[in-house]
């Protein structure tokens, strides 16, 4: 039954039933030996999904102190969920053609389309409390179906210069705009990447990402340089500066305003929101009534077919499982919102990623069966 009151959804729409249909179609894309997996990202080219994620063959979950956490690229048929190939592209001590990677966990991989022929993947190499983590990148040649096995340092550009992409440099810049949390030598990632806006002068739009130091609780909006080697910080959204605010997701609203939903990693753990007229100067984060009972987990904020999709973890638990309820609200204008999906599952539904391809929306998500964290595998499927 179609809505007649301006709603985006039919009057008889059932968010849980809609989510259950999505859950029923998910496929596990991890190799059989994988014991722990988390924090995927993907894009689709020519009906193939290129999925990057963290994995390990030892135990469920992930931790930057575990040097056995590695990163994979998995190629999946979008229509069927069939895995075609999996390649480990980052691992502790991995030997590349131009250098050997330092020992340490390989964390939070991200993927972007560099050009018609090339995908670029980023990852952080970390050894907490032993050295500054460093973000690296390497390229995948679509035509040849293989990586260029050379890795390169990524850089971050702040108001005081261009530096290797390490936590110390982003932290130093944020202290000038009110961050009051201490520096830590790991935890810096391109957490909400990559999104294209501002098509003027850019064939497919300028590429944006949210930089996040999860451990500190620090967020900044950045653009990727034209050669996709440097994250140029536009603005920090860290207020109130004493709170541990993390893993923001951003969007541009119809009037040009930037809007961010941000995870709060301390009581009451509910999400907070900030806005900016230009991406440079941001408001102080605050709670909103529309999200009354969020849990500390990564949110999402996308726009598909002119409709905003904002996803957030609810603190309600199914079978006492953490991160077992995830909501997706939709809006045309970023002001009036409706509940489109309510994922409820004892396998958890956490850290989803949504990507549009030829009018359809696909997803990856972390799930599990038995461990407290439920970080055991990456699932792939179609949202709508």
Descriptive report:
This protein is globular. Helices cover 5% and strands 47% of the residues. The protein has 2 helices and 25 strands. The chain has a single domain, classed as Neuraminidase, CATH 2.120.10. The longest helix is centred in the first third of the chain and has 10 residues. The model has no long low-confidence stretch (mean pLDDT 95). With 384 residues, the chain is mainly beta. A hairpin with a 7-residue loop joins strand 17 and strand 18. The strands form 6 sheets. The protein has a 6-stranded mixed β-sheet with strand order 11-10-15-14-13-12, covered by helices on one side. The protein has a 4-stranded antiparallel β-sheet with strand order 1-25-24-23, with no helix packed on it. A 4-stranded antiparallel β-sheet has the order 2-3-4-5, with no helix packed on it. It starts with 14 loop residues before the first helix and ends with a strand.
How many angstroms separate the termini? Answer: 18 Å
Q: Could you say which structural class the secondary elements and strand pairing correspond to? A: mainly beta
Count of DSSP-assigned helices: 2
Please report the total strand number as a whole number. Answer: 25
Q: Please give the CATH class.
A: Mainly Beta
